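Q: I'm building a small set of examples for a reading group on sequence design. Run inverse folding on the following structure and report the sequence directly after it, with nothing in between.
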């Protein structure tokens, strides 16, 4: 199934929420797409070939989320899809965008401090606080709510938020980047105005994603200067990346068929970790959350130390959110959940995917054992 040899060589890769291996059929599709080098906007045969490859991919991505193909806007990834939604869904100022305090930085960058919706100890949106904020704000308000948290995996009650939004005439954008590859997605059932997707979280390539709008919905372009993507996103399309996204979307059913097995691996890892370190804390444990994600704090041992020790043993995990600047700070997600800073700094995120096996669970536990022992000492 996999193009990469991640599980064949010595690397034990447990960081699927950061990025995933590229699927074999995706790599094949990219090679084939290289031959379709035409500009999809050109009217000649080379352009038309490229255009049809892009439109096939659009159909596949739309089908993956039960959306309409003409409502898929290809972007350079989840970050850009979030920016497009938050700047273009309603013609409003930044003050009218509100978002949960645990959103990804690519959402939080568009929200002021007064626009943060508090969450509970498990990172789940506080609906009462949200309603108070909606009462106070003049319409139109845009609510940004993620489907699943990238650090803890906790799932948000999207339906309840949509109900509140409709009561107050607000719109809802859902960052669903952590959905594909882990759960089935249906934009119509979610009832939101738009969702963001990122291809590299589900077997595709980095640097490509999509904003999918609800049927009848529209968005004002942020990237200007061309009529591509129905005038919603200017710029010549990344044809190989988009084709790759389409191939990953077509493989999605097969990837999802691994989800129950993947969850058993995650559960075994959590049980093993707690057996070694009963003082360890698993965030959002017992709450609805992604079956592949474990966010574990080992009080007394910094995430940096854990990451380095695990890395030496060839085990790849991350510290809460991926440290984009190379420095690990306490996670804003855990802090928003009321976790003390010291405890937050001892948290690691282990995220499984379709290539993992029981051997990966054993390798993690073996490498983590001395850390658990020194935490207890
Ligand atoms: N939103 C969430 C929840 C994510 O986890 C990520 C990536 O980690 C993004 C957005 C950004 O996506 P991309 O890497 O495609 O820009």
């Amino acid at each position: 199934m996999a193009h990469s040899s991640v599980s064949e060589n010595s690397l034990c890769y447990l960081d699927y929420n950061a990025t995933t291996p590229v699927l074999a059929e995706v790599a094949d599709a990219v090679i084939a797409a290289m031959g379709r080098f035409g500009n999809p906007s050109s009217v000649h045969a080379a352009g038309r070939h490229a255009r049809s490859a892009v439109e096939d991919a659009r159909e596949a991505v739309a089908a993956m989320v039960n959306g309409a193909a003409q409502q898929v806007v290809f972007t350079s990834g989840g970050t850009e899809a979030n920016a497009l939604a938050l700047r273009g869904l309603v013609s409003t100022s930044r003050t009218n965008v509100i978002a949960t305090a645990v959103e990804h930085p690519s959402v939080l960058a568009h929200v002021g401090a007064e626009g943060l919706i508090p969450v509970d100890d498990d990172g789940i949106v506080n609906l009462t606080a949200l309603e108070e904020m909606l009462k106070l704000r003049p319409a139109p308000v845009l609510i940004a709510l993620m489907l699943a948290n990238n650090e803890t995996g906790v799932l948000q009650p999207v339906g309840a938020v949509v109900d509140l939004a409709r009561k107050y005439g607000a719109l809802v954008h859902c960052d669903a980047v952590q959905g594909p590859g882990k759960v089935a997605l249906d934009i119509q059932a979610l009832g939101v105005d738009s969702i963001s997707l990122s291809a590299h979280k589900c077997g595709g390539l980095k640097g490509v994603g999509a904003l999918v709008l609800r049927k009848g919905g529209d968005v004002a372009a942020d990237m200007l200067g061309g009529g591509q993507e129905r005038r919603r996103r200017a710029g010549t399309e990344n044809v190989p990346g988009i084709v790759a996204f389409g191939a990953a979307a077509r493989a999605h059913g097969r990837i999802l068929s691994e989800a129950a097995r993947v969850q058993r691996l995650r559960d075994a890892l959590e049980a093993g970790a707690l057996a070694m370190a009963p003082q360890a804390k698993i965030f959002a444990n017992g709450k609805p959350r992604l079956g592949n994600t474990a966010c574990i704090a080992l009080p007394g041992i910094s995430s940096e130390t854990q990451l380095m020790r695990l890395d030496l043993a060839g085990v790849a995990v991350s510290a809460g959110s991926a440290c984009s600047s190379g420095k690990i700070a306490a996670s804003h997600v855990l802090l928003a959940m009321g976790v003390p800073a010291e405890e937050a700094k001892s948290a690691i995120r282990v995220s499984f995917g379709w290539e993992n096996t029981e051997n990966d669970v054993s390798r993690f536990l073996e490498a983590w054992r001395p850390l658990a022992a020194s935490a207890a000492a």
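The chain has two domains: 8-21+256-376, 24-250.
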